[in-house]
Specification:
Number of strands: 0
Oligomer: single chain
Shape: elongated
Radius of gyration: 19 Å
Helix content: 55-70%
Number of helices: 8
């Protein structure tokens, strides 16, 4: 092969990243066209708020997982990040389809987590003393800040792997809190069933990530 042909070929990491993007896109499409039982009376505000906010939450998990997947040399983390990206893309497609089927806008005018304030045990998004900005609300959901995402992109080696585990454990913990809220407040059987599955898988992933942290001696 000539030097010109070699130089025109995209690097291996770009091909890997493209493959993950394509798989995640397919997973989203599969989720969008999946069918799950819904209540005859329709969703309530918690069901709708959960589906909207969890799409925002999942989008960042997919983004972080793809950042890590294309760079890590740790095979266990590569597998975990792939699983997170594909599973959460599929679930996002499913939630997108719910909202479309319910005939409501994909994005509402309420602050993030406003739906959780219907119950005294879930004081978020509109309760007394709630954060005033969307960045603060996203932080309450366990999401990474723009600065943390930039750090994740810039980090290398074990430092990158450890930062990913830290950010994703926090991210998953925020998702589990949202699941617990919709289990208390929601009414749609499909939402409740899917939310329960989310919590179970993310709890397992937290355990796996904590095991990786121990193995890598993350500070």
């Amino acid at each position: 092969m000539s030097d010109a042909q070699s130089s025109s070929r995209p690097p291996a990491w770009a091909l890997i990243a493209l493959a993950v993007v394509l798989v995640a896109g397919l997973a989203f499409a599969i989720g969008r066209f999946s069918t799950f039982g819904q209540s005859a009376s329709g969703p309530n505000a918690a069901d709708i708020g959960f589906a909207r906010d969890m799409q925002v939450h999942h989008a960042q998990a997919v983004e972080m997982s793809m950042i890590l997947y294309e760079a890590t040399e740790d095979e266990e983390l590569r597998l975990i990040s792939y699983d997170i990206a594909t599973a959460q893309a599929q679930q996002s497609g499913q939630m997108f389809a719910w909202i479309q089927d319910w005939g409501v806008p994909q994005r509402g005018s309420d602050p993030l987590m406003q739906w959780m304030s219907q119950d005294g045990g879930h004081g978020h998004g509109g309760s007394t003393g709630a954060p005033a900005t969307e960045d603060e609300l996203r932080a309450e959901m366990g999401m990474a800040s723009d600065e943390e995402l930039a750090q994740l992109r810039a980090a290398t080696g074990t430092a990158k792997d450890c930062l990913f585990t830290e950010l994703m454990i926090r991210h998953h913990s925020g998702a589990i809190e949202m699941v617990e809220a919709v289990q208390d407040l929601g009414s749609d059987p499909g939402v409740l069933r899917t939310a329960s599955g989310m919590a179970e898988s993310q709890e397992r992933e937290i355990q796996a990530l904590e095991s990786v942290q121990t193995r890598l001696a993350c500070g």
